[in-house]
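Please, structure for the following, as tokens.
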Amino acid sequence: MLLHLLTFSSDINTSLQVGDIVYYSATTPVPGSGFSTVPAVSTIVTFGIVTNIFNDGNVTPPIPPHSILVMYDNTTTAPPTSEYIMFSKNKEANSSSLIGYYADIEFRNYSTDRIELFSVGSEVSENSK
């Protein structure tokens, strides 16, 4: 595994976390659109995984602010400076479901009028045995 430092000219997206997957793409000019370049969807390359984020540059040894450290394998080429960089969240680390073995639910109606419960739902997934 190799490490590569990507440095940006402005703040890093606040949603970026260690463990997120980094992609890059060549950009193509778009005449008449108001955009100088856009990422070319056909050239998106999976680069690697974020291992560290350096926002302020106050680390030893000195690392430029607005930088991220990406771990990638030797079959991938590091992106040139002109490439568009994007990321996706790690699905395993950012799941939003509850983890546990037991749930106890009680519904109470404190209304003095008659009410009707339309639907109750839950998501259950086995996470261990």
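The beta strands are 2-7, 21-25, 27-29, 37-39, 45-54, 67-72, 84-88. The mean pLDDT is 80.
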